[in-house]
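Thread title: Can someone regenerate the structure for this chain?

I was given the following input by a collaborator and told the matching structure tokens would be attached. They weren't. Posting the sequence so someone can regenerate them.
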Amino acid sequence: MVAPLIAARAYAAIQDAASVGLGGQAAKTQGPDFGHMVSQAVSQAVGDSRNAEAQMTAQVQGKANLVDVVTAISSAQTSLDTMIAVRDQMIAAYQQIMNMSI
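Best answer:
Regenerated them for you:
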């Protein structure tokens, strides 16, 4: 059940990025900058984590279904893994730039 959710989010992100890029130079200046995109991704990861915590709390209280809890935890884990991968790529890019000779 988690795979379709991940695929839907990835598809939506690609559509948003493509719509910004198709407008030419004017659309590029109006689109979000890299810092804003990273901030949104971090906010989404935090939101997924809080949702997972809320689902776990509801399960302990007997108010939530176990499938919903597992789905929320998997979504939070996927968001965290994505953020870690982006962080690693940003660090690698920074290191490559720092190692360039002038």
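The two ends are 50 Å apart (CA to CA).
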